[in-house]
Design brief:
The structure holds 3 protein chains of 3 kinds. By secondary structure, chain A is α/β, with parallel strands linked by helices. Helices cover 36% and strands 27% of the residues of chain A. Chain B has one domain. The longest helix of chain B is centred in the C-terminal third of the chain and has 39 residues. Classes of the chains: A alpha/beta, B mainly alpha, C mainly alpha. The interface between B and C is medium-sized, with 31 and 34 residues.
Chain lengths: 238, 218, 225
């Protein structure tokens, strides 16, 4: 039985690897039907934060709660409500798009995995290339399949790590449309990116990270580029 | 240097200095003569080797279950001492064997099993050193498998060599040399506890240093 | 759900493998090369060493197995698909079992080629007791693969993983190798004592059970960061 929840609350979360502090005292809350942007330069800790949210890693300090559930106790059923699109796409290059989607659908316990995969392929517009191995796809097409793979079990929490990398304008626009659709369906979307132009107009709140620290949290940001520059330079002076 | 170190170390040093006297005063064993005296260091070292391996296995299991860093430090220290005392066993054993039976190495069940256990301890240290992040858990898993493996290694090597044509080299324990033996056992156990506590202390200092480094970033 | 997950993972592994057969071919070739090297090293005046066949067979299996394990998990490391597998709401030990069965299948396939080859090169009567030979090979392979799959999975994100796998694997699988070699050697003797073979098989089975239980129990804590 998969758990459902209406918000994710991160409280005082830190994560270090030996002497390297990847994240320090991060706190935020993301509710249903919102898109939260994790913004920051490379090495700011965005990927680590996503891994923590996905329960792939445990925080060194602090706590992450999914509605009333804690990651430690909820375990497998919580994972059924989380979908993650990593930087490495998580696809088997030797398998076809259809096989990848069917496999992950089956793994996530989606009933009639084959139909779910077919629907996902139609949604992403890749139905004609469904039976080609993923290794023959361009980066953008692989990204689309990977996104469908992350969403095939209709997760409540959707985590995306740099999803706009390598996408051309039309694919990026399609992705933006898809994310807006997810928001309308009530998903909690957490998006890590350093592409501010695309994030602009898409995200409902922004969390600025730098060197593992939360520098600023802004609700309903506009003029993202200017805000970003201001926030990041302010920190450098402090 | 923690406070308990100096008196403890002094006691151990005194006892070790006294041990050769006790060993010299003990009776000669009938067939092997002087060389048999290596046994007074070989046997306690073997026992401590085994104890150390058990400590490592138990601490690793507790670390995997609870994630307590203290158990991890204990396991690491115990693994290092397993390698140390295992080395003593594997040096003194053949020295004794050479003089007593004319060969450096026999595929004796105990020596072979000890060699395998020693290699697992070495593997533990290599993993801790070269495994990168997450190597503490990896090594704990290895230690657990190594510990569970001990009876199987013993049984398999025992039957392996008894079906091989080989001379039996199992020594019997002489009773009349008890004093010297137990004194040496006490020496070795003191040494083991001393080194273990010192090593765990070192790891604790390292952890404190890491925490200081981290708080420096604040 | 457990069995279903394991089956899905196994089927996926077999599908991926059948597409390219890369690991199958390279493992097989490596095992054959291993046996040939032993043949060149140990054969004197056209005669193979007695008892050599059993040892050589198991060494080739151990080396080829290590290679296969490394390559299989290297595949999961590309595109970090192991993470995706861990994200499934299924029991994590089920993923382990799926991977394990795939490795066992691969190694058994290799053995099907190796056994006749060793029998041929070393004039060893390996087919005198085919049933018992199969039992010994399967039990030994399962024991080896159980430990190997667990350690390889653990090593996926470690540094120096290629070197560390043999370092971790070989000392732990010593009883498996000893039992396997002794059982096989006993089967090769002119009047094989089946009671002895049964003893070694019993030891292998006990080892398999202990290792498998430990692996299933520790897979989850070892895979979480």
């Amino acid at each position: 039985m998969t758990i459902d929840f209406d918000h994710v609350a991160v409280t005082g979360v830190s994560r270090h690897f030996g002497r390297r502090r990847a994240l320090s005292q991060i706190s935020f809350r993301a509710a249903r039907g919102t898109i939260l942007g994790l913004l920051g330069p490379n090495g700011a800790g965005k990927s680590t934060m996503l891994a923590l949210l996905a329960t792939l890693m445990r925080p060194s300090e602090g706590e992450i709660r999914y509605g009333g559930h804690a990651a430690r106790t909820a375990g497998a059923s919580l994972r059924g409500a989380i979908g993650i699109l990593g930087h490495d796409l998580f696809l088997y290059p030797e398998l076809t798009a259809r096989e990848n989607l069917t496999f992950f659908a089956g793994l996530h316990g989606v009933p009639s995995a084959g139909d779910a995969a077919a629907a996902a392929l139609r949604q992403s517009g890749l139905a004609e290339r469904a039976d080609d191995p993923v290794s023959s796809f361009s980066r953008g097409m692989r990204q689309r399949v990977a996104l469908e793979r992350a969403l095939i079990h209709h997760p409540r929490l959707v985590l995306l790590d740099e999803p706009f990398t390598g996408l051309d304008d039309s694919s990026a626009a399609a992705l933006v449309g898809r994310l807006k659709g997810l928001r309308a369906e009530g998903a909690i979307v957490v998006l890590a990116t350093h592409d501010l132009d695309l994030a602009e107009g898409l995200i409902d709140s922004a969390l600025f990270l730098r060197d593992g620290r939360m520098v600023e949290a802004v609700d309903r940001p506009d003029g993202l580029r200017a805000t970003y520059r201001a926030v990041m330079t302010r920190r450098a002076e402090a | 240097m923690p406070k308990w170190f100096m008196p403890f170390a002094a006691l151990t040093a005194v006892m070790f200095t006294a041990s050769p006297l006790l060993i010299a005063n003990a009776d000669y064993e009938s067939t092997m003569g002087l060389v048999q005296k290596v046994f007074y260091y070989y046997l306690p070292a073997a026992w401590v080797f085994l104890i150390s391996a058990i400590v490592c296995g138990v601490a690793s299991a507790r670390f995997l279950v609870s994630g307590s860093p203290r158990q991890d430090r204990l396991a690491y220290a115990a693994a290092e001492l397993t390698v140390l005392f295992g080395a003593i066993v594997l040096v003194t054993g053949p020295l004794w064997a050479r003089k007593a039976w004319g060969v450096w190495w026999q595929w004796d069940v105990r020596l072979t099993s000890s060699l395998m256990g020693w290699m697992v301890a070495w593997a533990y240290l290599l993993v801790r050193k070269y495994g990168g992040p997450g190597s503490d858990k990896l090594a704990a898993g290895l230690a657990l498998f190594g510990a569970a493996n001990v009876p199987f290694i013993y049984i398999s090597v025992n039957y392996w060599r008894t079906i091989h044509p080989a001379t039996s080299v199992v020594p019997t324990l002489p009773v009349d040399m008890g004093t010297a033996l137990w004194f040496c056992v006490a020496c070795f156990i003191l040494l083991f506890v001393l080194l273990l506590r010192l090593r765990v202390h070192l790891e604790e200092q390292r952890t404190k240093l890491d925490a200081l480094f981290l708080s420096l970033d604040e | 759900m457990f069995a279903r997950t394991a089956w899905l993972v196994l089927r996926k592994d077999l599908t991926v493998e059948v597409r390219s057969l890369e690991i199958a071919y390279t493992t097989l070739f490596f095992a054959v090369a291993c046996v040939l090297v032993f043949a060149f090293a140990l054969v004197k005046e056209g005669k193979a060493p007695e008892d050599g066949a059993a040892g050589i067979l198991w060494i080739a299996i151990a080396f080829a197995g290590t290679l296969a394990l490394g390559r299989t998990f290297e595949r999961e490391r590309q595109s970090e698909t192991l993470r995706a597998l861990l994200m499934a709401p299924a029991d994590r030990p089920a993923i382990y079992v799926g991977k394990l069965l795939g490795i066992v299948a691969l190694l058994c396939g290799t053995e099907i080629v190796l056994v006749p080859l060793v029998a041929f090169l070393f004039q060893a009567p390996l087919f005198r007791h085919p049933f018992w030979l199969a039992v010994v090979l399967v039990c030994g392979t399962v024991g080896f693969a159980t430990v190997g799959t667990l350690f390889s999975a653990m090593l996926v994100r470690a540094r120096s993983r290629d070197v560390l796998l043999p370092v971790l694997l070989y000392p732990i699988t010593v009883p498996v190798i000893i039992a396997g070699v002794r059982a096989t050697a006993t089967l090769l003797e002119p009047d094989a004592e089946l009671a002895l073979v049964r003893f070694w098989v019993a030891l292998l089975l006990a080892l398999d059970v202990v290792f498998l239980t430990l692996a299933l129990w520790t897979f989850e804590p070892l895979m979480t960061d």
